[in-house]
Request: fold
Amino acid sequence: MITTLQNNEQHQHPNGRGWVANTAFVDNSVFVGEHAIVYGRARLSDNVRVEDTAQVSGNAELTGDVIVRGNRWVDGNFKASTGVYRENPKVQTKAQSLRPAEDGLDKG
Reply:
């Protein structure tokens, strides 16, 4: 269940029993696993699989043979027609000081 939505704003997908917001479009051919969620204005079609605790949201468009699994969260304007997306990329949260040549401000 998508905890930020009311019951009447979502439904379980017939192929996998995962939760899909009524604002998203998910073909019946797509597999949405029971712990996966799709929301926002995401569009999924063809042989796409959303497995494990993966999330697809925003304006993401997935077609073809895409697999989203693990704890991966695909959102924004992400588009793909092939590939396996397993985990979220690591984000560096520590500030890093760059020298002028590395930050594009090379003053020669």
Notes: The chain has no helices and eleven strands. Residues 7-85 form one domain.
